Amino acid sequence: MDRWTEIRKKVLVEGVSKRQVMDEEGIHWETLQKILAHSQPPGYRMSKERKQPKIGPYLGRIKQILADDKHIHKKQRHTAKRIFERLCSEDGYSGGYTQVRIAVQGIKQRNSEVYVPLTHRPGEAQVDFGHALVRLNGVLVKRPFFVMALPYSDAFFVQIFERESTEFVWEGHIRAFEYFGGVPLA
Question: Are 79 and 100 in contact (CB under 8 A)?
Answer without folding.
Answer: no
